[in-house]
Amino acid sequence: MTSGGEVVVALDVGGTGMKCALVRPDGTVAHAERHATEAARGPEAVVGTILDVAEALAGKARADGLTPVACGIAVPGVVDEARGVAVWSANVGFRDVPLRDLAQARLGLPAALGHDVRVGGLAEARLGAGRDARHVLFVAIGTGIAAAHVVDGSAAVGAHGAAGEIGHILVRPDGPRCGCGRPGCLEAVSSASAIGRRYTALAGSATTAAEVAARAAAGEELAARVWREAVEALADGLATGQALFDVAAMVIGGGLAQAGPALLDPLRAALRERLTFHREPRLVAAALGDEAGCLGAALLALDTLD
Amino acid sequence: MTSGGEVVVALDVGGTGMKCALVRPDGTVAHAERHATEAARGPEAVVGTILDVAEALAGKARADGLTPVACGIAVPGVVDEARGVAVWSANVGFRDVPLRDLAQARLGLPAALGHDVRVGGLAEARLGAGRDARHVLFVAIGTGIAAAHVVDGSAAVGAHGAAGEIGHILVRPDGPRCGCGRPGCLEAVSSASAIGRRYTALAGSATTAAEVAARAAAGEELAARVWREAVEALADGLATGQALFDVAAMVIGGGLAQAGPALLDPLRAALRERLTFHREPRLVAAALGDEAGCLGAALLALDTLD
Questions:
Q1: Which family is annotated (chains A, B) (predicted)?
Q2: Ramachandran class of B138: left when φ > 0, alpha when ψ lies in -120 to 50, beta otherwise
């Protein structure tokens, strides 16, 4: 049994899994566990699981001699953080779910609801790879692409909870159609799934982005071409981000960032080529891995206590 | 002689002219005057004129029974507002000029230095067309294109004073080369000068953007095509802005906005077409005309007094 100390009950809810933790105010993790989201059961069942897991975590904290002081929940999609409402989420099925108030009522603790990428950016900017910079753009590249613009430790939310959708900016007017319905979005060219799709279409055999990266590194010409095209479109997107945000550091996270220097080295060179009068941001890999969402949800909840 | 009352000495320095005013704390103008910048004389002479004009304005205020309480100066280019330094400006020739401290020393008043478009956005967001919205994107379209993202009455500056450069985002990978050196920037397709250039190249006779708008309205096919292409690229740029910022209102200013509904109506329709899951911002014309920079410089100076 750990003695004393305050913790935040933190949940990062994704389309397939929930990362859950008890997080201390300094950002260290006292306990972590994972659960399946099973989104196919429908949004009401998912909400039920979220509340059950959160309540059990608060109980676990108390059993371990810790004091749960707040609850932070991160979800994907469009999130209205001011009202604490999950407005819209394609992969979890939320439509206007007042998750913050539901958690507050169930746990009897102050609660905060955040957007998964925005709180991930919050964590990377405060505790991770961007901690030396006041102006940070966190870009998560996985199935989709989304960003968080964090200034002085606070992530921009937007007027309707939808800021940071860098995956849906136009980079290739003649490019493939995006899941959102528009042609040429960054996400339709440079996401991990887009890279896998593109190679699969050209090579005729199912391949993931990680395999494309490995084959490109091994000198395979087709893989190298697909990888290069994705990196170039990504550099176009980041250059647009730099023109609008003018940050000191760009932190690249999500599954694709696991390619490491094979992604970051050519991306840095391509970004440099595109910047003229703008200062080049420091381009670095995310440092917190898939814990970022949980840590960020905890930070957001702690902010509400101040 | 006006009786009593505090005013701010405000200057908006452009490549050709300086708009100058004594501005009351409520944003009304007690006195306005204009001077030539004569940038060809070199940056030192321009700085001299700025300080002379500011000092004379403070004297004029006192002679009129008013109390000058601060000085606000707006300049184009890259502006480090925190340090009060005009870092770089193509059309005035500034390189690392500590204008804020120079003005403070000369006038013996607290001073603030701002970026012309960012303070223009500040004024439009607080006093003008965006005054009902908490999240505003002000876009000035003239010789160039630049933006200011204003949230809760405060304009984003960026890590190096260069935020909001929406004119230099990629919209047409195969498009004309921009003055910045890169191909396909929004400014190279949709600025007033780009529209004039494009029509001139196709028609073979020198024409301004205002004339292109008039001819398009009169049903001339070539003018209509050039106008439509510019509006579509502009809509792509605004859609990118909405994806990243998620604002409630977009305020369009600068010379091109004088086209009124001939610009705003097709632009609104083209923007709507490009938004899928994002909420459509209110798209409106700027309300303060070319006084916005001066008013914004005054607001910025007043903010430093708080």
A1: Belongs to the ROK (NagC/XylR) family.
A2: beta
- Nearest-CA distance from A185 to chain B in Å? 10
Residue B29 to chain A, least CA–CA distance (Å): 31
C-beta of residue B244 within 8 angstroms of C-beta of residue A164? yes
- In chain B, residues 124-143 whose CB comes closer than 8 Å to chain A: 133-135
Query: Are residues B71 and B111 in contact, defined by beta-carbon separation less than 8 angstroms?
Result: yes
**Chain B residues whose beta carbon lies within 8 Å of the beta carbon of residue A182:** 274, 276
Q: In this predicted complex, what is the ipTM? A: 0.94
Asked if CATH classification 3.30.420.40 holds for the domain at B6-120+290-305, the reply, yes or no, is: yes
Residues of A in contact with B78 (CB under 8 A): 277
Topology of the domain covering B133-286? Nucleotidyltransferase; domain 5 (3.30.420)
3-state secondary structure of A152: coil
The phi and psi torsions of B78 (rounded to 5 degrees) equal: -100, 120
Other C-beta atoms lying within 10 Å of the C-beta of residue B62 = 12
CATH 3.30.420.40 fits A6-120, yes or no: yes
Residues on chain A touching B279 (C-beta within 8 angstroms): 159-160, 162
| CATH T-level topology, domain A131-287 | Nucleotidyltransferase; domain 5 (3.30.420)
Euclidean distance between CA atoms B272 and A280, whole angstroms: 33
- For tokens 């746990």, the residue is A107
A47 near A105, Cβ under 8 Å? Answer: no
Pairing of strands A67-75, A6-13: parallel
Question: In a structure prediction context, what are the per-residue pLDDT tens digits for chain B, which is 306 residues long?
Answer: 445 699 999 999 998 899 999 999 999 999 999 999 999 999 999 999 999 999 999 999 999 999 999 999 999 999 999 999 999 887 888 999 999 999 999 999 999 999 999 999 999 999 999 999 999 999 999 999 999 999 999 999 999 999 999 999 999 999 999 999 999 999 999 999 999 999 999 999 889 999 999 999 999 999 999 999 999 999 999 999 999 999 999 999 999 999 999 999 999 999 999 998 889 999 999 999 999 999 999 999 999 987
A282 contacts chain B (CB < 8 A): no
CA distance B104 to B61: 17
Task: Give yes or no on whether B6-120+290-305 and B133-286 have one common fold.
Answer: yes
Nearest Cα to Cα of residue A72 among A118, A140, A124: A118
pLDDT tens column, A13-52: 998 899 999 999 999 999 999 999 999 999 999 999 999 9
Label residue A203 left, alpha or beta by phi (over 0 means left) and psi (-120 to 50 means alpha).
Answer: alpha
Contact A150, A192 (CB under 8 A): no
Q: A-chain residues within 8 Å CB-CB of B163?
A: 244-246
